[in-house]
Specification:
Elements (H helix, E strand, L loop, with lengths): L4 E10 L3 E7 H7 L2 H4 L21 H22 L15 H10 L8 H8 L3 H10 L4 H9 L3 H9 L6 H7 L5 H14 L8 H6 L1 E4 L2 E5 L3 H19 L2 H22 L13 H4 L5 H5 L3 H10 L6 H11 L5 E4 L8 H10 L4 H4 L1 E7 L17 E3 L5 E3 L5 H6 L4 E8 L13 H9 L1 E2 L2 E2 L12
Parallel strand pairs: 4-7
Antiparallel strand pairs: 1-2, 3-4, 5-9, 6-9, 7-8, 10-11
Helix pairs in contact: 1-4, 3-4, 3-10, 4-8, 4-9, 5-13, 6-8, 10-12, 13-17, 18-21
């Protein structure tokens, strides 16, 4: 079964890779499992489509893309760097199937609105991915086990970075891997931005195996450098977009309010979200998890538009109708203002527990390997003409400039009404005082422009 090939290669049309090629029966069987098909119903970028309207693509399409890039890497390695003797550090093509399956299934444990859902209910998509792969109750497990009895555990070990061959692990998870390369290109395509574009063909061409994992030829360093810069810009311009984060805050508070009402036994029977009860009660099992997708949550949100609780009803309407909270950035020095700003929000008629939030988003564009860190990163190695390895940032001034430096910001979210024009409104003095602490989208201790804003 391990190397059973299809009678004829299967292809999927794809906007990023043109064709996705499937040659192995096991890959096609995995794609057709209920667990993998569920990924069609989960958006890759969560709420980002509220900002970038084209970002409707799913984790299904991304997972196929990661598979395709991994397949191309395997083809390149087998054609140009095939192993000649055990332990020579070159590519052993017997590793192909485990690499392809890990690539295809790496995201199968994601839930609806993944990261927000995890935060509220304490789930872990990586742990659930491993459970899907290794639980005899799943169709995925049954198909993997047909390859060989311990094959499900092998695939899971690639995803949790314990598989003994570092080449396979780094294909799927490293600072330049098939996962990141596909989501940058796919997210750039679907958001209509150019930030995430880089020369995939060139990067794959200069990639090569060695005993410690995967490295890149020196003559391809600039393609790798371009990838790092593209990733940096995508995080700043797309993944950390303030409005997307404002919608995530609404979603977070909506689920928190529903959880509170259930735990406080206030949920009216006609509105109880039956599929979420195991998560409210912390008793969910794998099948409970696999029943959920974005559509399930959205359906509950629609029913809550008529719920008697004003906060739940309003948050559901804000989420479904794209009414994000507004935000300002703040620094440690201005964090002291937040309690007072929450008081003003409260005085304006909004419960600050559900209508304010602090949100921070930071990313390391590139990180040098530090074995002492909690999660040491695999650094990008460049192969020199004399076959020695040099770490990327030691050769690239551009990468060195952003290496190890977290980029992002911390923002305070609040209702848009707080930015209303001072009028005869009952809350006008509150709005005016609130705005006193804001200048150019950031919190300040004193506003030198206040005298110019009397109108």
């Amino acid at each position: 079964m391990a190397d059973q090939l299809l009678p004829r290669e299967k292809v999927f049309r794809d906007p990023v890779h043109n064709y996705i090629h499937v040659r192995h029966q096991v890959i096609l069987d995995l794609i057709n499992t209920p667990e993998f098909q569920r990924l069609r119903r989960i958006k890759q970028l969560g709420v980002a489509s509220y900002v970038f309207q084209g970002a409707e693509h799913s984790r299904f399409t991304h997972s196929l893309g990661v598979y395709e890039i991994t397949r191309q890497i395997c083809d390149n390695f087998q054609s140009n760097f095939p192993s000649q003797a055990p332990g020579d550090g070159l590519w052993d093509d017997r590793e192909r199937l485990v690499a392809l399956c890990a690539a295809l299934l790496h995201d199968i444990g994601h839930g609806p609105y993944s990261h927000t859902f995890e935060h509220i209910f304490g789930t872990d998509h990586e742990a659930i991915t491993r459970r899907i792969l290794t639980s005899p109750e799943t169709a995925v497990y049954k198909i993997l086990a047909r390859v060989e009895p311990d094959f499900p555990a092998k695939v899971a070990s690639v995803i949790d970075h314990t598989y003994p061959n570092p080449q396979v692990v780094q294909m799927i998870s490293s600072q330049i891997d098939a996962d990141r390369m596909d989501y940058l290109l796919r997210d750039a395509y679907n958001t209509g931005t150019n930030y995430g574009l880089f020369d995939l063909t060139r990067v794959l061409r200069v990639m090569r195996p060695y005993a410690g994992g995967i490295a890149f030829d020196a003559n391809g360093m600039h393609a790798v450098e371009d990838y790092i810069v593209s990733r940096f810009q995508m995080y700043q311009q797309v993944y950390f977009h303030p409005v997307s984060r404002g919608m995530e805050v609404i979603l977070t508070h909506l689920l928190e309010r529903a959880k509170f009402l259930y735990e406080d036994q206030q949920f009216e029977d006609n509105f109880i979200p039956q599929l979420l009860i195991p998560f409210f009660e912390h008793t969910f099992d794998l099948q409970d998890y696999l029943r959920l997708d974005d559509g399930v949550l959205n359906t509950y949100f629609i029913t809550w538009l008529n719920y008697p609780d004003t906060i739940l009803r309003d948050l559901a309407a804000r989420f479904l109708n794209r009414k994000p909270l507004k935000s300002v950035s703040f620094m440690p020095a201005t964090r002291t203002l937040l309690p007072h700003l929450r008081e003003l929000v409260d005085q304006a008629g909004f419960n600050p527990e559900y209508y304010t939030a602090e949100n921070d988003s930071f990313d390391l564009p590139y990180d040098q390997y530090d074995p002492a860190s909690a999660n040491p990163k695999t650094q990008i190695e460049i192969i020199q003409p004399d076959k020695t390895l040099e770490e990327l940032s030691s050769l690239s001034p551009i990468v060195a400039a952003i290496s190890g430096r977290a980029t992002g910001d911390t923002r305070f979210y609040f209702p848009k009404a707080m930015l209303g024009k001072p009028t005869d409104d009952l809350f006008a003095p509150i709005y005016q005082e609130f705005q006193h602490y804001i200048l150019n989208g950031a919190l300040i201790l004193e506003n030198p422009m206040e005298d110019d804003n009397d109108d």
